[in-house]
Amino acid sequence: MNLSITAGVVDGVCVVRVTGDVDFATAGQLRDALLASAAGGHPVVVDLSGVTFLDAAGLSALVAGRKATGGRLSVVGATGVAHRILILTGLFSP
Prior knowledge:
Layout: E1 4-10, E2 13-22, H1 27-38, E3 44-54, H2 56-68, E4 73-76, H3 80-89
Helix pairs in contact: 1-2
């Protein structure tokens, strides 16, 4: 499955919606989108409700985004494998 990323500011928060598989082949796209979103100076919310797969490269992209925002990055909507990985690694709270 291809990766689709959209971003927009809503009420002073940059919302990044991700759909598809986030893996070694696509994680760079997510990282770039998160770094660009962080540059806007707004808190960032990453909606993973459309993500069907997430691996270590995807986690690395999320961590890079969190660092770029000074910790002002939240992840919402993760389900299935993505949710389990986020919980097991302890990188993002439920």
